[in-house]
Amino acid sequence: MKGLHGDVSRRGILAAGNWIVDHVKIVDTWPAQDALATIVSQSDGNGGGPYNVLKNLARVNCGFPLSGVGLIGRDADAERILRDCAAHDIDRSGIHQTEAAPTSYTDVMTVAGSGRRTFFHQHGANALLNLEHFDLSKSRARIFYLGYLCLLKLLDAPDKEGHTGASRLLEQACRHGFLTMADLVSSETSDFPAVVNPSLPHLDFLFLNEYELDRLAIPDRSNTRNDPAHLEAQAREVLDRGVRRAVVVHFPEGAICVTRGEPIVCQSSVRMPRELIRGTAGAGDAFGAGFIHGLHAGWELQQCLELGVCVAAASLRDATCSAAIEPMENCFQLGRRLGFNELFPRS
Question: Is the pTM of this model over 0.85?
Answer without folding.
Answer: yes
